[in-house]
Amino acid sequence: MKIKNAIGFAVGPFAVAFFSLLTVPIVAWVFSPEDVGRLNIFQVTVSFLLLFFSLGLDQAFVREYHESDEKNSLFKNCAVPGFFMLLVALPLGLIFERQITSHLYDSEHIGYYLLTFAAAIVGYCSRFLSLILRMQERGLAYSMSQAMPKAFLLVLLGLLAFLPISKNFLELLWAYFLSMAFVLLIYIWNTRSQLRVAFQTKLSGLEVRKLLKFGLPLIVSGVAYWAVNAASTFMLRGFSDLGQLAIYSVAVSFAGVAVLVQSIFSVIWTPLAFKWQAEGVDMKRVDVVSQQVLALICIALVFCGAFVWIADYLLPPIYASVKYLIVCCIIQPLLYTLSIVTSVGIGIARKNMLSVLATVTALMANLGAGFLLIPKWGAPGAAIANAFAFYVMFIMNTEASARAWRNFPRLRIYAFTGLAVLLSILTCAFASGLPFSFSILWALAIPFTVRLFKSELISIWNLFRTKRHGLARS
User: Fold this and answer.
1) Which of 9, 93, 284, 309 has the fewest CB atoms within 10 Å, counting from its CB?
2) Element spanning 331, H or E
3) CA atoms of 413 and 295, how far apart (whole Å)
4) CB neighbours of 461 closer than 8 A, spacing ≥ 6?
5) Rounded Cα distance, 455 and 288, in Å
6) Rounded to the nearest 10 degrees, what angle do helices 3-30 and 242-278 cross at?
7) pLDDT reported for residue 202
């Protein structure tokens, strides 16, 4: 991927993060904590429906795209099966509509069910259309298709805030659904020529079965990873109340900025590592990258811990405890980002079941810790359980990579990540009683961390300068 295309793809996540950070306080101020908690359940449910009904064919499309001579036919064979399954599931689910909405949203409003499924259908179409832009390396178009709906959502929420209308969960759902529909329209426009040809191709049952053979096993690992993320949400729903779920949801939303780093890095790193392996590059280079990423996530974490008090100026007083959860929530995507580097050997050695085992073990850890902590601690217990689960997954993936591929130094990585997880958990659990002490602790950790990772920071800066000069010359 060319540098300019990479920059084009990076613009979207940064814009999405910016608009999302503006959206979180508006939702928190305008809607009740119960509705904010329901919104988290809505988002988690839609993500599951997308994951399940995609049947792994979205990843099959990416895998086969460059090797296929009939790309438009490939798109239709990948997109149609799950779409029709969603259309069939919608009326079938109406039989249990009251039970579903009552379990999810603590309400039997049929509109909640219909909008949830409608959002899943729209999101499904958007996911597959976005793959066309991604595989064609149309980075800027892809980024704009992501960013514009977030801006549209921000406008809708602003209107809801100032117009003299009711502010309840149904209106909040409509705002999110309309923003998702808006992104679909943009994707349709940007891929109109490909769609026109794809509609004229014939669906091949033989090809679909071949693609399903590749895609269906991926659902297991995908659902397991989804469950690690979603377990705390549903345990809070079952063991606590929607108010605690709202606090957890807002903290996770702020931590979503780190997911941006994770998503960009995962797009760039894995293909690069496979390229190094294929070209016979000395793979000790991976060790250098892992130390550089470790430095960045540790510094990001201590800065976050030192400045989380800013959340008090963005949120209503009812969310005062959110700032203590943010560090614990942000460490999850940061650990996963580091894991992308340290566990690359699993993919190189083609031992993907080891990654599935690590994810399932992390899920068990999350469920066990959540069962113990959430009934008593509520939102802090959920954040702690999730952080613990991600650390378990990180260690297992890293160890699996070292044993299945090549041995590499891990003691320094485990020491610093373990200390980071411990401080994050202590902050989440006890900072409400000693807020000033923990703020000072995180602030003092900044120069200490910079000093410890001085050599890594210098190497990162030199690498950045080299790439920048190369881009300027091009």
Assistant:
1) 284
2) helix 322-342
3) 10
4) none
5) 11
6) 170
7) 83
